[in-house]
User: Fold phosphoserine phosphatase from Niabella pedocola.
Amino acid sequence: MKQKNYYIIDFDSTFTQVEALDELVRISLKDNPKREAVYKKIEDFTNQAMNGTMSFSESLAARVKLLEADKSHLKKLVVHLKKKVSRSFSRNAAFFKKHADEVLIVSGGFKEFITPVVKKFHIKKENIYANTFVFDAAGKIIGYDDQNPLSKEGGKVILIRDLNLQGELYGIGDGYSDFQLRESGLIKKFFAYTENISRKSVTAKADHVTPSFDEFLYLNKLPGSISYPKNRIHCLVMGAVPEKDLQPLVQEGFTLVYEQDADEKALQQASMLLTTPDVVLDPRKLKKATRLKAIGVVGKIKAGIPLPLCTEMGIVVFGNARATLQPAQRMIDFINKGAISDSANFPRLQLPAVNNTHRIIHIHKNVPGVIAQVNLLLARHLINISAQFLMTNETAGYAIIDIDKNYDKQLLKELKKIEHTIKTRVLY
Assistant:
């Protein structure tokens, strides 16, 4: 019988982008003239505990003492935290619904704010393990239950040992208390979660460093909202690209590689290239960049970008001389949805959003019969086509095919072998 897997997930700076107690003190001390000094103390106590330089119990006691919060502040905190769920957790809500019995939230935070935040993700109340506050008659926080194992140093280890879960345990978190589970031998693997913060004292000891929940799902061969983690998609930056033009790529979670810091293989390893009009690409080097899918030029596209070669290689080129969207955003739309509107070298094609289907992109030479071969292959695999779009120019054909999610992965290998195919890829 196959062993059950359990996923032990931290809350602060993992499930959410922030440390909840830090946010609570900002809410409760909003009108306090000494608030900045208190904020700093709270953050210092938090970081010391997360880095393992202060015991968790000492840090927790010190932070709660500084809160000066009540139930009304907690309500405001919950509203705030619901907007601060980590992006990659939000887009993988379906995973939590499917694995409701196997997901445990284990946190040194407090149930009063954790439970209402994770509720919409179908995480069961009985699978939420956290501290609880103690209130006075007026609803002010005056302490916490110090008999709860999670209020103590090594509390997560104590709790998981007592639960005695039968199966393979995987830990996901950003702090030292999460690593302690791996150190104790109670979990199979520890994934240091760095989407929101990266602590060297933790990442150095992790089995894997995972910049997003997408990466965790990918590594463990679990279905996710996207087929390939965005942090694994590299964008090479060449020339003096302004910071504001890079921000969309950073916010989306792609990995930026700067030319001045890169080795000679950086172009070959890149999926995207963002550059300035003065940069001249060497066609010999470009021909070796077989992973490259899109080029964005911050400004007018000039002769330094060999458009015919890009088209021949299936590389979509975007500039922003007349377009309303930044080239970075249009590259993102291309990677996420296959959108090529306003490209400099491919036919114009407006696309609807992907909705509960896989989207296959097939770029091919504009010769007769290619789409017929594609459709024959789909028919042989008994694939139901939800939608199909095709536009061509004198050189290339760009086909979008939305299909049901259940299909034989061999299909993609066979699509690549169709004569005159330039590039093909699948989107979720």
Summary: The domain at 355-428 is CATH 3.30.70.260 (Alpha-Beta Plaits). The CA atoms of residues 3 and 167 lie 5 Å apart. The longest strand covers residues 103-110.
